[in-house]
Amino acid sequence: MSDHEFRDFYDHATVHNDHQQSVGETDIYRVSSSSADHPSYMSFTDCLHSNFVDYGSLEKAFGLSPSSSEMFSSVEGSNQTTKQKVGEGDLGGNNTSELMTTPNSSISSSSSDAGCEEDSDKSKKERQPKESSEDGGERSKKGNKAKKKGETKQKEPRFAFMTKSEVDHLEDGYRWRKYGQKAVKNSPYPRSYYRCTTQKCKVKKRVERSFQDPSVVITTYEGQHNHPPPTTLRGSAAGLFPPSMLTPSPLAGPGFPQELFMPMPHHHMNNQAGAGSMFAENFNPFQQYHHHQVPDYGLLQDMVPSRFLKQEP
DNA sequence: CGCATTTGACCCGCGC
DNA sequence: GCGCGGGTCAAATGCG
Question: Where is there biased composition of kind Low complexity (predicted)?
Answer without folding.
Answer: 65-78
